[in-house]
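Slide 14.
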Amino acid sequence: MRLIQLKHSRGLRAAVVESAIQVRLVEFDGGTYALARAAIAEGISLQDMIRRHLSHELLDYHQLLDLRLLLPPLTHPDAAHCLVSGTGLTHLGSADTRDAMHARLDKDDAELSDSMKMFKLGVEGGKPAAGQIGAQPEWFYKGDGDIVIAPEHPLPSPGFALDAGEEPELVGLYVIGDNGSPYRIGFAVGNEFSDHVTERGNYLWLAHSKLRACSFGPELWLGEAPRHLQGESRIVRNGEVIWRKPFLTGEDNMAHSLANLEHHHFKYRQFCRPGDVHVHFFGTATLSFADGIRTQQGDRFEIELPSFGRPLRNPLQQAEQAGNVVGVEML
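Slide 15: predicted structure.
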């Protein structure tokens, strides 16, 4: 089952994708988040809760897109209670992309960069046996729900940014139950969107490079994700594709298991606050930046995983160059 979320005359609603041209409305106030909270409270699956509230109302999918009525497939009514985070160096080949080099993992640790050391830890211990704890991955914070941009809407890049580049990724979506346990709602395709020039300047600027907008959706895949996923990332400029490249994701193409990445995120008590939403990006190995592409105002990012339905599309919106120093007032 695949789910979208939209603005409706009766308020926020979720809808089940029935085909490439139509969706069926779920008649339940509050959309995906409210459905998930109700399912957790009743101890039933989200899919069962959705089936219970399916309506007879069919909507034109193309019209929803054209009118830009789609929202991210999971949102929190209070953006401050949505944490957006991610992990890197998780995909086979991602360390080479990150470091722009072809280092061999059989070198002595003293000869490896920090990125390659982190990648090596994942390769050697990122997929532990059931019940075991594996290697700890790289982790980063992106922001709260205010940085999440709906599909088809512009991704803003701040004036001080040195780059505005896409990152095609698998995204895990979670709601924390009243008992503090995380519940995985499902998966979506995402554009993590980062500043790769800033990151390249100094690895300790990685945190700065990640404090940007992002987008995911438009569709939410309910249930376990396929272990092997193949998609394509594209950049469209003035109606023409200027760059395209396939990308692989899913556990079979990762150094870490999803369970291990989830453990190392939710082991922190502050990430298990009842009612919160978590949007967690699982990393990538494919970047246009690594191929020398520099994006421009109006370029459109298109990230597609066919198993997850429609591609995620967002145009780039560059802010004017920042020139003024931010002042802080004394109280």
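Speaker note: The first helix runs from residue 31 to 42.
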